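ERR on first pass: missing label on line 2. Operator R.T. fixed the label and resubmitted. Corrected input:
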Amino acid sequence: DTEVTQTPKHLVMGMTNKKSLKCEQHMGHRAMYWYKQKAKKPPELMFVYSYEKLSINESVPSRFSPECPNSSLLNLHLHALQPEDSALYLCASSQDGGVAFFGQGTRLTVV
Amino acid sequence: GEDVEQSLFLSVREGDSSVINCTYTDSSSTYLYWYKQEPGAGLQLLTYIFSNMDMKQDQRLTVLLNKKDKHLSLRIADTQTGDSAIYFCAESIEGTYKYIFGTGTRLKVLA
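pass 2 clean. output:
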């Protein structure tokens, strides 16, 4: 099983809403990642959790709040987003810094 | 520095071979990857190569790595219309959780 599952697949939210993106993997990977991808651009790293601890935050605005409840789950809590935050949000996992597997992404639209 | 470059666009006829090229600058990479992204979807790991190898073949895919020139290529034999997508090369950097992505090459396969 090399699957990373993300929910929901699509999300539309208003600028005053609070929502969460979820990611799950059962490959026993201890590193999990959030990436943001704008159309026709490569993914940009947002956060990395290693062994359930936040190890990298790429200067992401505080309206994005990651959480790693356990080694299989990763959440991204969203609050007071802006229209420019609309993008495809990708979750990935790897065994330490090895081969990374990506989910199908959540297409987020902020209205 | 960290920089990965790809040509933006490639068009081939169905049944021909496609060759997608990538150059990178960081010599401390551990693995180099090729990901495929279809419209609206996440990143699908196609293949990867360890940095001390120079070739890897997997069915229709052949990866060549020239570490001296920091050049990576992906050859797709007998290209099909289903291969039309954006292809990203990426490298993982030793001792970090960072994956550096190329700009992506849009492959269009003409029937």
